[in-house]
Design goal:
By secondary structure, the chain is an alpha+beta fold. The chain contains 8 helices and 5 strands. It has a 3-stranded antiparallel β-sheet with strand order 1-4-3. The longest helix has 13 residues. The radius of gyration is 16 Å and the shape is globular.
């Protein structure tokens, strides 16, 4: 496992992750295929992703625990993303009106700790999924 982690988390991967709190900017992104690895197994991307999917360790991690969605308030003036946050919100609203609209989802990050007072809710993934659909 250590070898696989070392290969996966090369300097570029570490630079993209260390010191950052990443978040999905829309609820729809949480339900997308791209977010699935965060919920597949214990430890999400940080532990599970570097492992070979069919390895004995990955199979054991896949049955541990129950995934949750942590909803937080992020400071807009320190939120960094790869597209304008307003574009994501408008696009999400558009898709609610027109399901055939182009899907534009984004994630963002802050380089600060998220204080407990900014944690809005912790919801089991299955409950979150049922409420969003």
């Amino acid at each position: 496992m250590r070898r696989q982690w070392a290969e996966y988390f090369d300097p570029g991967q570490r630079r993209s992750r260390e010191g950052k709190v990443w978040a999905c900017l829309t609820r729809a992104l949480v339900l997308s295929a791209g977010a699935r690895p965060f919920f597949e197994a214990f430890g999400g991307e940080a532990i599970y992703m570097p492992l070979a999917e069919n390895s004995s360790a990955a199979k054991k991690l896949a049955v541990l625990g129950r995934p949750v969605v942590v909803e937080v308030a992020l400071p807009g003036n320190r939120l960094r993303s790869f597209c304008d946050a307003a574009w994501c919100v408008l696009n999400y609203h558009h898709r609610r009106i027109n399901p055939d609209a182009h899907a534009m989802e984004s994630e963002g990050y802050v380089c600060d700790e998220v204080p407990p007072s900014d944690v809005l809710d912790v919801v089991p993934l299955k409950d979150f999924t049922a409420a969003v659909r």
